[in-house]
Write a structure and sequence with these properties.
With 245 residues, the protein is α/β, with parallel strands linked by helices. A nine-stranded mixed beta sheet has the order 3-1-2-4-5-6-7-8-9. The chain has nine helices and nine strands. Bound molecules: iron/sulfur cluster (SF4).
């Protein structure tokens, strides 16, 4: 059977989604429904182009010299590419055969079987951590955080290369209790870097355009001071922290 991926869009010279210059592919679908999602137009598998892994590979190969000179590669983002594992495995396998660095940007809400298939062909896992309180996680994303945290521990055990992304959402993820839980969790896993993502409101227009209610309306982005404080607090533990705006 031919494998086809549901692709929403591309970004040819991305610099925010992994190391170096990257070809970023936004895939359709996501198992979560985060209240702040800025790609809400990619969640429902409605607006996409079907592509085979080979077709996508042909599209990225002209950029190989840029990847090589910058230490970059390809990033599958979305939505969440983990919803289309057959496509990801095949596409990343083609990339690895050409020596191209592969990154997946994911929530990690999936099964161990899927992780096992992805581990050998994924150079970097960029995993977004949402909330450590189960009730709040459910409210914020529509799903439990248990399989996510378990999967991260599993990836860590398998020595996967992990980079965390942590959205600083005032009143939700910047609280004392959540930051304490974040630190506690981070001490139990292996990772290379934490990216702090200050909450922003740039994606609200997409919610309005789709006629969806944006429940976080009125929530303001965090202050520079609060981001700096969180960064310092994490750096104190000896972790590498970067602010990704
Ligand atoms: S995991 Fe990412 S793409 Fe999925 S709903 Fe949350 S913010 Fe949106």
């Amino acid at each position: 059977m031919t494998i086809k991926g549901k692709i929403h869009s591309f970004e040819t010279f991305g610099t925010l989604d992994g190391p170096g210059i990257r070809f970023v592919i936004f895939m359709e679908g996501c198992p979560l429904r985060c209240l702040y999602c800025h790609n809400v137009d990619m969640l429902d598998m409605k607006d996409y182009k079907d592509m085979t892994p080979e077709q996508l590979f042909k599209k990225i190969i002209p950029y190989k010299t840029y990847f090589q000179s910058s230490g970059g590669g390809v990033t599958l983002s979305g939505g969440d590419p983990i919803m289309q594992p057959n496509f990801v495995v095949k596409f990343f396998t083609l990339c690895k055969q050409e020596g191209i660095h592969t990154t997946i940007d994911t929530s990690c809400f999936t099964t161990k079987e899927t992780l096992d298939r992805l581990i050998p062909v994924t150079d970097l896992w960029m995993i977004s951590l949402k909330h450590f309180n189960e009730t709040k996680h459910l409210k914020l994303t529509g799903q439990s955080n248990k399989p996510i945290l378990e999967n991260i521990r599993y990836l860590s055990k398998k020595k996967a290369n992990i980079r965390f992304r942590y959205m600083v959402l005032p009143g939700w993820t910047d609280t004392f209790f959540n930051l304490r839980a974040l630190k506690k969790f981070l001490k139990t896993v292996r990772f290379k870097l934490i990216e702090l993502l200050p909450y922003h409101t740039h994606g609200i227009y997409k919610w309005e355009h789709l006629g969806l209610k944006y429940k976080l309306k009125g929530t303001k982005p965090p202050s520079e001071n609060s981001i700096r404080k969180i960064k310092k607090m994490l750096e104190k533990e000896g972790w590498k922290v970067m602010i990704n705006e």
